[in-house]
């Protein structure tokens, strides 16, 4: 009977109204209704009941409207904040300098990483770090005999420079 309100109300509210309405319009015989002291009194009771019902419906509607507005405003402010953060990140982002292919290849050879056609695509940050540590240990001047220390020192510096060139390229891929 009241399907229009059932859609907007919770199921409990709709059932409560239906129960109250059913109690109000109890099954009475036609004679009892006719014999009742005043049909006007019954109409007034029903009108009172109907006004309370409409008032309750408006309260529920306002409550849902306020809740929706609150949630909407929270989401809006959250997305504004995220948009502002992304704009700040975009402004602070700096592109790493472009490294020529020959320099990348020579750096990879220094670190004893196999050079492939795709160069840095298969090299992960972990692989690069392991290769750097292994070469740094191998060519550290303190691990070499006295005669080879000068050459090892130069090679050690070149390995550090090669690692510094390749590290931003790995981070850029992520």
UniProtKB/TrEMBL annotation:
<feature type="domain" description="J">
    <location>
        <begin position="106"/>
        <end position="174"/>
    </location>
</feature>
<feature type="region of interest" description="Disordered">
    <location>
        <begin position="61"/>
        <end position="99"/>
    </location>
</feature>
<feature type="compositionally biased region" description="Basic and acidic residues">
    <location>
        <begin position="61"/>
        <end position="77"/>
    </location>
</feature>
<dbReference type="InterPro" id="IPR036869">
    <property type="entry name" value="J_dom_sf"/>
</dbReference>
<dbReference type="InterPro" id="IPR001623">
    <property type="entry name" value="DnaJ_domain"/>
</dbReference>
<protein>
    <recommendedName>
        <fullName>J domain-containing protein</fullName>
    </recommendedName>
</protein>
<dbReference type="Pfam" id="PF00226">
    <property type="entry name" value="DnaJ"/>
</dbReference>
